[in-house]
Every structure is written in C-alpha cells, then in structure tokens.
Design goal:
The complex is a heterodimer. Chain A has 11 helices and 8 strands. Chain A is of the alpha+beta class. The relative contact order of chain A is 0.12. In chain B, α4 (about 90-105) packs across α6 (about 235-240), α7 (about 250-275) runs antiparallel to α8 (about 275-305) and α9 runs antiparallel to α10 (about 350-365). Classes of the chains: A alpha+beta, B alpha+beta.
C-alpha cells in the first residue's frame, strides 16, 4: 500500500486509507486536462483539501495544524502522486510547517503576499508556484490555475515571498498541470517568512522529500498498471507477464521503488530530528540519496510501463502516458535546483 | 567469554572488546601467513570462537545455546565482521543445520548432532544441487531407497561448499519416484566418512576449490538420520533456508562498507589529475547502495524478530547486495589499476591480491544461493503476482 512505510502504524494506515479513498473519489477531476474551463473543480478540491487539514498537516496543533511528521505528510503525498493530484500540496505543507516553526506569520502581514499565503493555506486561494529557470532565469510557474504565483526565495533574513501575476499559461507537458511563465511582482507585494537555520534547511528538505513522495506514488501506480496489463495481455497463447524479459524489468522497477521508499522514509525521520549542524548534514545526505533514488525509480518505472503496454502505451487513450508525464514534470522541477551530477558530487564531498 | 550482557549497548562493547583482544592475538600466534582466504586459518579462528562460547547464540540453553535474541545476534555478527575476522567454514552447520534440527529434529537427533556443531568438531555441508538440478532444485534425482532400518543412497551432488572438509552432509534425496516433484523428497543426514562417498573438489575461477562434487554410491544411511517425515523434506529445506534471513547479510554489508572506505581513500589519493571524474560519482552511487542495504537489513531483522513470515525482501536484498558488490569491485580494480594483474608476492596478501580475489569471487555471488534471475522471478511472482513462465 505504501512504499515509504512498509510497516505503517495503525494511525498511518488510517491516514493512507482515508487519503486514498478521498483521492480515488476525485479521480475524474484529477485526470481532467487543463483547459480554460477546468479551473473551477480544482479550486473546490483545493478548498476541500485544506479543510481536511492536509495543507497544515505538519503545523502544530496550536498553529491550527495536525501536528504530524514529515513521514506522515509523505504518506499523503505518496497517495497524491498515485492518483496524479495536480495541486501544490507538498509545497503548501512545507510552507505551513515553516510558518508554524517560526511561530511568526509572514510580515508585513498587510503585504499582498502575506495575505495570499494565508488564503492559500486556508484553501480559499489556489496559488501557483514560480521559480527561476536554471538556464535563463525566466520565471517559470507550475499549478498556474488562478492568476497569482508565489516565488519563495531563500535570503539571509528568511524566505522572501513575492506574489507574481501569471503571464502565458496553459496545458503543459503533463496535461493536468497548468504551467506557464509569470511577470515578476513588485517589492510592495513582498513578504518575509522568518526562520531559524534548522527550519530553513528543514523547509528545503521537506519540499524535496514530499515531491519525491509524489514521484514514488506515481511510479507505484504505473507499476501496478503495467503489472495488471502484463498479467492479462496474451501473446503466443500466454500472458506476456510470464516472460522474463518483461517480468524481470517489472521486478527491477519494484526493487528500485522499494529502495527509494526506504531511503525516503529514513530521510523524513532524519529531517524531523535535525537540530544541529551535524544532524542537518546527515538529513541532507539522506535526502540527496532519496531524491536520486526516487527520481530514477519513478522515471524508469513509468518509462517501462509505457513499454509494457506496447503500442497501446503510446496512445493518448491509454492513461499510462499520464504517469510518465507526471514523473518527468517532477524530475525536471527537482533537477532545476539540483541535477543528478550535483547530488552525486554532494554525496562524494559529504562522506 | 561465557556469559553475555543482555543490554544491547553493553553487549556490543563487551563483544567488541573481546574480539579486539582475541582476534589480534590469534593472528599474531598463527603459524603461517594470516590470510583471510585460507580455509585452515578460517577454520582455526572458527574453532577458537566456538571454544570461547560464541556458538549457538540464539539456541535454547538446554542444547548448549545462549538464547540471545535476534538483535543481539545481529550485533555479534556486525562486530565480528567489523574487527576484520573472516567467516568460518562451518557456516552451514551453525546457520542452517543447527536451527533446522532444533525445529524439526527428534530429541535423539538434537542430542547427537548439536554438540558437534557447537564445538565445531563436525563440519557440515549441504547436499542440494545436482548437475541436472540447479535453479530447478525440485528436479533432483539422487535417490534414497528404504532397505530395512536404513536408506540406500545413490546420486551425484555438485557445488557442495566445503564438502572436502565436511564430516556430515544433509542431503535432499528422492524417496518416492511416483509422487509430484516437490512431494517425494526427504531430508537425510549423511556421514561423509563412509564407503561409497566420494568427494571431488572443483577448481573455481579464483584458482581455489571450495566447491566440490559429491558422489554417493550405495551409501547406507540409518533411518534414524531422516529429519521430519519421509517425503516431507522439501518444506524442511525451504524453512532451513529462512533461518539465517535476519543476519545473513550483516557480515557482507560490513565488508561492503569497509571496501567503500578503502575506495574513498584510494580515489582521493589519486588526486584530480589521475582520478577519473566518473569514479567519484560511481562511488557516490555505491554509497547509496550501502545505505539502502543497511536499511533493508534492518527491516529484515525487525521482520524476523517479530516472527513475521519471510517475505520477498530476502530476494531483493540478495540481488541488490550481489550486484552492487560486483559494481564496487569493478570500480576497485579500475582504481587499483594494473597492480591487480601482478602475480601475488610471497607473504601477507596486499590490497591488490585481496581485491583481485574478491573481484573474481564476486562473479559467484550473483549465482550461488539463488541466481539473480531466480530472485527476480520470485519478486515478480510473489510480490507482483505475475504468472510463472512455464
């Protein structure tokens, strides 16, 4: 059921089951392709998600959150990845936790960005997330359903948030995620999220880990689809899944996902307990490992799923391409900040 | 060391302390060249450990064991590997046959065979594979025919590790030719020092001979040496394979970590000028493998300790460890370079000699104890529920 918690506690099992049930019921909305008329259902869904407490899952109970761990958040994100939720849940979770840990709201609290962030976490505003493209510094935005995208930048004073207006947007590589470019906001719209050194690292690690959890969920769903098809599809009078050329690759996909899940679970625990330089360093190392393992496993699995479906796999009608596209989307967002070269180099240097 | 602290931290320190003193003393007192590949050296160290009470760690007290829980046993294996001591030659006796007898043996069999394992005076080998029955073990053809109060054993086993040193062998033999493949097999304990038993060592690609062929020609096996029911040997063999699941990989993972540390030093020492920049990244990937294997090992141990039935994690750990180890040794040979090709100098083996040997031996690791292909079949069928191929 979960690759990240192979032996979940009772509470975790309930969390996974309820997330899975909720998302399954929304399947049609989640798979809807981006079009000028597709904004409304997702706006409503975002509100429901916030009302269930998912955006503030990691915030403390005093901070109107559920006081859960990064691992718990990862379990939800894994399900989100499974059902291809096209919403900025993982980033909202990490942001809410950051604000909670600082025990201070974004300031100045009258800045449009401060107001927007609170509305975003409350579920009343579906903000997109913008980041600088590595190659040319243009502002690139994902989840750009409504007019407004947040840029969260690390500065010495904390995270600086700028609210941008979105420019050209539309259906991107992943047909369910609205992407585009944004027009930079002005200083008037800027807010700052203060934070300690440990919280700053934890925020960055969480955004990466939770996106990896989504990747794993997507990979797992693709594997399930491929396995189901390989067991049903017959050629030469036998199911193709009995052929080692196919079953061994699927077994390898499972092993890679399971490995990544183990690393990810471990990295989540290390991230929560990171307080001093040494433990932050360890959490970073574990996160780099998990990130590399999760992106490679999800990419390999979704690629192989298309291959297993044969000619059906390359049609629009067969949904297996949606997994590949989602995995590619997340991989490229992650590698915008850190390529696999950077991650491997960091692991070499860290040891 | 006859009594063990039960607190994990104290236990670890006590074992570490004991091993540090005794292993170095043993090496210093060894009459020849202390070479971890030398079977005499390995057996002598194993004898030493058994004499000092490091045997039957998890066995019940009434059979001479220490009743240590699985986590303490794991600590022992970890510390033993960490001090650099080699594995013994009676691993099959301690790790497989002993626990099998404790579970399935008669009282008489336990009283008769367990003491010889505990004091290491009886070395055991495992008579499973045959020339025509490798991955497809159930197609084995060695026959045991009932004759009064004994069985007459005829057949040919192969890839039998340490058979040339073994005093006893547990043999899977067909006792019922009519029954379905898995149903007509029995588990017999066979004395290797008797007429009709012939052992032929097989020279391996390392130049050594740990594997042997074993021929049984009208060998008489007392019916008392049947473990479990007649024709019920298959399930015993399957259970026997699972007894080591919590601890099997521990020494291998400790070694993996040591080798990674060696590699890090050598690559760093080569400097940017001589080192291939790709080495660093290959090393970083191996460090991820090491971390995954550590987490997998802990998961397997926790599962085994909680009494959960063996899952597919053993297959996944086996594939991962053996294939990652091959990648590690591939890198090690490249980093050490042409030194690997030199003849071995007399005296204590140097790094190049040890790594050349490990490199060659690693080719066996993806084959023995279930090939990588069979392990992938197991994962595909047991975890994913894909159909069998034939």
């Amino acid at each position: 059921m979960s690759l990240i918690a192979s032996h979940p506690s009772e509470e975790q099992t309930l969390l996974i089951e309820s997330a899975s049930r909720f998302l399954k019921a929304q399947e049609a909305a989640l798979l809807t392709e981006v079009s000028p008329s597709s904004e409304r259902p997702l706006t409503n869904l975002w509100k429901e998600i916030a009302m269930m407490g998912w955006t503030r899952l990691m915030a403390s109970e005093q901070g109107a959150g559920l006081g859960m761990s990064t691992l718990d958040a990862a379990l939800i994100c894994e399900q989100a990845g499974r059902y291809l939720l096209p919403l900025p849940l993982s980033q909202a979770m990490a942001t809410a936790a950051l604000i909670d840990e600082a025990n201070a709201p974004p300031h100045p609290d009258t800045a449009p960005a401060s107001i927007a962030i609170q509305q975003w976490l409350d579920g009343t505003l579906l903000l997109g997330l913008a980041r600088k493209h590595r190659n040319d510094n243009t502002l690139w935005v994902e989840y750009a359903y409504a007019n407004g995208a947040l840029v969260i930048q690390d500065t010495p004073d904390g995270f600086q948030c700028v609210l941008n207006t979105t420019g050209m947007t539309g259906q991107g590589l992943d047909p369910a995620i609205c992407t585009g470019t944004t027009v930079p906001g002005t200083a008037r719209e800027c807010a700052t999220l203060p934070c300690s050194n440990a919280a700053r690292h934890r925020y960055t690690l969480r955004t990466r880990l939770l996106r990896c959890a989504e990747l794993l969920g997507t990979g797992h769903a693709a594997l399930d689809a491929a396995v189901r098809y390989a067991g049903e599809r017959e050629q030469f009078g036998k199911p193709i899944g009995g052929q080692q050329a196919i079953k061994h690759r699927l077994a390898e996909n499972w092993m890679a996902l399971d490995d990544a899940g183990l690393l990810l679970g471990h990295a989540c625990e290390k991230t929560d307990s990171a307080t001093n330089t040494e433990s932050i360093h360890e959490a970073e190392q574990m996160t780099a490992m998990a990130e590399l393992a999760a992106t490679e496993a999800a990419l390999a699995t979704t690629r192989q799923a298309v291959q297993t479906f044969g000619a059906m796999g390359i049609t629009w009608e067969c949904p297996v391409h949606r997994y590949l596209k989602r995995a590619k989307h997340h991989q490229l967002v992650l590698s915008n900040e850190r390529t696999s070269h950077n991650l491997l180099e960091a692991l070499w240097q860290a040891a | 060391m006859k009594t063990f602290p039960r607190n994990p931290q104290d236990f670890r320190l006590a074992v570490r302390d004991w091993l540090e003193q005794h292993y170095s003393r043993f090496v210093a007192g060894w009459h020849g060249i202390p070479d971890p590949r030398d079977l005499d050296f390995r057996k002598a160290w194993e004898d030493n450990l058994c004499r000092e009470g490091f045997a039957g760690l998890g066995w019940p007290r009434e059979y001479g064991g220490h009743e240590l829980d699985l986590h303490l046993q794991a600590i022992f294996h970890e510390e033993h590997a960490a001090c650099g001591a080699p594995l013994g030659v009676n691993l099959i006796g301690h790790g497989i046959l002993g626990p099998t007898l404790l579970h399935f043996g008669t009282e008489q069999q336990k009283r008769r065979f367990l003491p010889g394992i505990l004091d290491n005076s009886n070395v055991w080998c495992q008579g499973y594979s045959e020339p025509g029955a490798g991955s497809d073990l159930a197609s084995l053809r060695t026959r045991a025919q009932r004759d009064g109060d004994s069985y007459i054993l005829n057949g040919h086993k192969v890839w039998t590790s340490f058979a040339d040193r073994a005093d006893w062998c547990f043999v899977l033999a067909r006792t019922n030719g009519e029954a379905a493949r898995h149903k007509g097999i029995s588990f017999l304990l066979v004395d290797m020092h008797q007429p009709g038993v012939r052992v032929e060592p097989i020279r391996q690609l390392t130049g050594e001979s740990e594997f042997c062929e074993v021929f049984f020609e009208n060998v008489r096996v007392p019916a008392d040496n049947l473990v479990g029911e007649e024709d019920g040997g298959w399930s015993i063999a399957m259970a026997a394979a699972s007894f080591e699941r919590g601890t099997y990989f521990i020494p291998r993972l400790v070694k993996f970590r040591k080798e990674l540390a060696d590699l890090k030093t050598w690559i760093s020492r080569a400097g940017d000028q001589n080192a291939d920049p790709a080495w660093r990244h290959r090393w970083a990937r191996l460090s991820i493998d090491s971390q995954i294997l550590r987490l997998k090992s802990r998961r397997a141990l926790d599962r085994a300790a909680s009494g959960a039935p063996p899952g597919p994690e053993g297959s996944s750990a086996k594939v991962h460890w053996s294939e990652a180890h091959q990648r590690l040794l591939e890198l090690a040979t490249e980093v050490l370079g042409m030194q690997i090709c030199l003849p071995q100098a007399a005296g204590r083996p140097d790094d190049a000699a040890l790594y050349a040997h490990a490199y060659l031996w690693s080719k066996a690791e993806t084959i023995l104890a279930g090939t990588s292909e069979i392990q992938r079949n197991i994962i595909a069928e047991k975890v994913l529920g894909l159909p069998r191929g034939n």
